[in-house]
Every structure is written in structure tokens, then in C-alpha cells.
């Protein structure tokens, strides 16, 4: 097993990150478009030389700007699987898998990804899911130390993506192969990732286990990805979180949160009640917002407010269709969101 250590600064893309992937672990890289996710993969693959930094896989140094080391892509023993399978259209499936210079046991890997019966077909005869499995077999046939996954399942339908995840998990878990996966799909994180980093504006905004990031995200994108509301602020002497606009959020504080610390308040959209007029009585946290959009989510309607004053994503509330019909909300209207204190968790900022 081999771990991965990366530090990469790419000035013209505004990227400066540092992280490690444990031996045999799958790291999911999340973030909004333009955050630097694909840049990180390209640096590891050797497709892009950073202005400063290094890439190490186990004891092998693949890139070290200070020492002038930059191993060529084809000698890195790094496999790259992208959204486009990039199969050679003039070669059969078997020939595609056998094509890489270091390819070993192509028939074995076709069997491993449940594609042995496709060996004689041409790429144009494959479905999207079949082509992606063949591309995975080609990447694995080169026996890479590291597998890089750049949203390889994004273009597949639900059934094909589910099958591909099953194959990926089998191969990654059994072979203890380290992998770095860029994704926008929460199912990829839930089924494949051991750890997560969130990139925002070219920097690591937070890192942690997949379970921790999804349960208690500390970054704006992490919260939006996990479907959780997040409010930034500073903890006051009374234990409430105070935003820069003076709003106080009361909730259950984590043990490591103390007065004066930067912190975040987290709560689920389902815990938010929506009112046309300021409510009286029990809800302790009440904020006036402007409706940005409404979206149907099965039996619920999600009401998304405009971005918060500090630029964080707008708060969201999930209400029943009956409540939505009664409230008759439209974008641009001013309304009130209310959340009981016991539904709010306050954690340290990353």
C-alpha cells in the first residue's frame, strides 16, 4: 500500500493546497466549479507543473519543484479516469485495455470490471456504462499505484452509475489502492470515500472523514453539498453565535466551542418553519429573509432564501406542499424563517 502527499501552488489558477491520502484510502475532493479540483488531479498526474510544491507516492517523488524533479506522466504509475472514457474508436475493447505500455493482464481486468463479454466489441457498440467500465479496466491494467477519478460517473444514468460504483468499490477496497476522486455526487462520497477535502477559491476549506463532513460540515460548500444550513459568526459570552449583522443564533454548543471563537451554526432545512409575519412565542431563532427560489423535493417544497449578508449560501426550509399552497410564496417576497434552539448545533469553524 502507498499513501499520497501533495502540496501544489499554481499561481495563474489561484490554487494553493496541501493534503495527504492514507495508504489504501479514497479521498473525495469537493468544491464549486473553479475551486481547483481538476487542477489538483492534473498536478498529481503530471499533466500540469505547479509553481511550487511536491507530489509523493509512497517513497517515490513524482514532482518536487525545489529539486527540479518532474517525472513524466507515463512513468508515474498513476491511472486517470475521466468523465469521457476516451477509448480509441478504431481499437476493440480488448485492444484498448491492452494498449497502455505498462498494461498487464488485460483479460483479467476486463473480468474484474464485469466486461469480459465485451472484449471483441468496438467502442461505438458500447453503452455509456459499459464504456466507463472498459476505461476503468484500461486504467487498472497498467497496475497504477494511485487511481485518479475526475467525475467518471457524472454522465451515466442511475442504473449504470450504481453498477459502476459497485465495481469501483470492489477494486479499491480489495487492492488497497489509494485514490483521489473529484465528484459532485453525494452518493459517490457515501459509497466510495473514506475522507473528504472541500476546496473553495483554490484553498482547502475543510477536511475530515466522509461521515463528519456530511454530518457536521464547517464550510459553505460542504454545508450546501450535505443539504445543511450553515451560518457563520463568533460565539458570545452567553454561548450564542453572533453574525456580523448582529443576529444571534442559539443552539447546542459542541464541547470545544468557547466564547470569542469563530464558529458555525448548523441546522437542517426540515427544522425550519416559515412564516409570512414574524412569529411570536417559542421559536428562539428567527430571521427575516428574501425568497430566492422554490423547488419541489418529492413530498416537500424547498424554499431557498437569497445569499446571506456575508456571501454564504442562502438558508433553506423544507415545508409540506399544503403549507406551500397556503403561504403562496413567490421569489422576491420577504418572509421569516424560525428554528428552535434544540435544532441548531454550534461547532468551531474550520
TrEMBL record:
<dbReference type="InterPro" id="IPR003593">
    <property type="entry name" value="AAA+_ATPase"/>
</dbReference>
<dbReference type="InterPro" id="IPR027417">
    <property type="entry name" value="P-loop_NTPase"/>
</dbReference>
<dbReference type="GO" id="GO:0015689">
    <property type="term" value="P:molybdate ion transport"/>
</dbReference>
<keyword id="KW-0547">Nucleotide-binding</keyword>
<dbReference type="GO" id="GO:0016887">
    <property type="term" value="F:ATP hydrolysis activity"/>
</dbReference>
<dbReference type="InterPro" id="IPR005116">
    <property type="entry name" value="Transp-assoc_OB_typ1"/>
</dbReference>
<dbReference type="Pfam" id="PF00005">
    <property type="entry name" value="ABC_tran"/>
</dbReference>
<keyword id="KW-0813">Transport</keyword>
<dbReference type="InterPro" id="IPR004606">
    <property type="entry name" value="Mop_domain"/>
</dbReference>
<dbReference type="GO" id="GO:0005524">
    <property type="term" value="F:ATP binding"/>
</dbReference>
<keyword id="KW-1003">Cell membrane</keyword>
<feature type="domain" description="ABC transporter">
    <location>
        <begin position="1"/>
        <end position="226"/>
    </location>
</feature>
<protein>
    <submittedName>
        <fullName>Molybdenum import ATP-binding protein ModC</fullName>
    </submittedName>
</protein>
<feature type="domain" description="Mop">
    <location>
        <begin position="280"/>
        <end position="348"/>
    </location>
</feature>
<dbReference type="InterPro" id="IPR017871">
    <property type="entry name" value="ABC_transporter-like_CS"/>
</dbReference>
<dbReference type="InterPro" id="IPR003439">
    <property type="entry name" value="ABC_transporter-like_ATP-bd"/>
</dbReference>
<keyword id="KW-0067">ATP-binding</keyword>
<keyword id="KW-1278">Translocase</keyword>
<keyword id="KW-0500">Molybdenum</keyword>
<dbReference type="InterPro" id="IPR008995">
    <property type="entry name" value="Mo/tungstate-bd_C_term_dom"/>
</dbReference>
<dbReference type="InterPro" id="IPR050334">
    <property type="entry name" value="Molybdenum_import_ModC"/>
</dbReference>
<keyword id="KW-0472">Membrane</keyword>
<dbReference type="Pfam" id="PF03459">
    <property type="entry name" value="TOBE"/>
</dbReference>
